[in-house]
């Protein structure tokens, strides 16, 4: 499958995937995720930083910001573990791990990645190069739910599992649009959630992430039909205005990110309907009129949601599925 095909027919935000504004949104989203439902953590507490001696990978790495922050955190740990000797030379007892990011959209990669970070263009629905197999103590995976069809997602998880060393960890985080919350709820916002849900079904995306994540991780089998991954942690973590301990300003910023996501999803649905309209020929007048009515209704919904969110009369939060698993020896 080519990159162009996968982005055009599956990725729900493909119309922004090569734009600087989308890359900036990804970075803001990362920062706010850390501050809200991950409690400023890069990895779950079940994964000890000291156990990450070999390689660390980020699948669907976007701009590489998670890897950059992991490299910074581990460099501090590395400095503490490897003090300078009397001649001022660091010992090499605990070398820094290898950092590799994979993403099909190389346009998001920075021109000059941070030192020690390698960014590789790769479609994770396809097998990874043999040189990366079994090389990583930790693989981070986040935000693939709106880029990969349900049919191919199981293949992604299998491919990612081959990256892990025995005993290595998978950390997997997604967002689930049906678990976005509006305070207060409005008819148009509730309708927008239905439209987005229909849009991802039309694109063959996973219909409900929490069930899919658990089922796919538990059903992944090795050559001897042994379970490949042991689930160490799974929960639905509240973010934004679904929790109390984060300060109001951060929650407002998180609310803006979720609102922007809603608008982008509606725009994606509108663009797909327009493309269908342009590709359809010789339709009878009744069908054409009905299709135009759907476009008009979607345009009205987009405008209404934008107006409500622009004046910040509605706050948003959400519940986000988060899974940590370990590869069996």
Automatic annotation (TrEMBL):
Protein's UniProt name: LaeA-like methyltransferase
Listed SUPFAM superfamilies: S-adenosyl-L-methionine-dependent methyltransferases
The organism's place on the tree of life at top rank: Eukaryota
Species of origin: Penicillium frequentans
CDD domains: AdoMet_MTases
InterPro entries: SAM-dependent_MTases_sf
